[in-house]
Amino acid sequence: MKKNISLFIMLLSSWVITGCVQVPPEQKQNNNQLAISSVRDSPVSYPQGSLFALSPKYVKETSLKAEQTQVIYHLYNNAIVSDLIKNGYVTGKAIQQAAFYVGFGVALSNDLSDKKISDKFGITPGLSEKSGLKKGSLLIYIEDAVTGQRVWRGIAQGFANTDLTPAQRHQRAAKIVANVMKQFYQTN
User: Fold this and answer.
1) Are 58 and 107 in contact (CB under 8 A)?
2) Pairing between strand 51-56 and 90-91?
3) Does the chain have fewer CB atoms within 10 Å around its N or its C terminus?
4) What are 19-29's pLDDT values in tens digits?
């Protein structure tokens, strides 16, 4: 019995001592954060099967090389087209046929600040800057082809990750576009 009590006290002591040890968590910067915001500007709706055309917009001065910008725009162009088609819309072969235009732009915060986004685009999700990470924004808007009025606009902000493989970049772009466009589909 004395052995059992001694063993119990020893186990209890080691459990208490182990429970008091604190191991600090790894300090990892979360570069997968994504902030999204959107607003509906007009009650115009587009049924599935409606034709759309893309209208990319570029920042006048960018810190990226022209080739880098082309790769990024091509990536997001494809992601937007795929997402719209997946949700029942049809890409117009000629701009005149489109029921709506999908404008989009991609920029780093060095090239397009939150203040400028807010002033020009009217909304910003306000993702905070983090040292050592490059914040980027994807701006998307839907414009009615007949009236020329903006129907909806959305923005996603996250941190650029240069360590991704091309396949991972493709998946990430598709996920970002889907999360932003989901807000358009819900209000359409």
Assistant:
1) no
2) parallel
3) N
4) 333 333 333 44
| Nearest-angstrom CA–CA distance, 92 and 119 | 31
Q: What are phi and psi of 51, to 5 degrees?
A: -85, 145
Residue 88, phi-psi category: left (phi > 0), alpha (psi -120 to 50), beta (remainder): left
Question: How far is the C-alpha of 108 from the C-alpha of 158, rounded, in Å?
Answer: 10
- Residue 140 and residue 102: Cα distance in Å, rounded? 7
pLDDT digits (tens, 9 = 90+) for 124-158: 888 988 888 899 999 999 999 999 999 999 999 99
The set of residues, in sequence order, having a beta carbon less than 8 Å from that of 38 and lying 6+ positions away, is 123, 152, 153, 154, 155, 180, 183, 184, 187
Question: Is the pLDDT at 46 greater than 70, yes or no?
Answer: yes
> Which residues, 6+ apart, have CB-to-CB distance to 2 below 8 Å?
none
Using DSSP bridges, classify how beta strands 34-40 and 150-159 pair: parallel, antiparallel or unpaired.
Answer: antiparallel
Phi, psi of 142 (to 5 degrees): -110, 130
Cβ burial, residue 2 (10 Å; 0-12/13-18/19+) = exposed
Two tokens at 80?
A: 């937007």
pTM of the model: 0.80
Tokens of 42: 């007009």
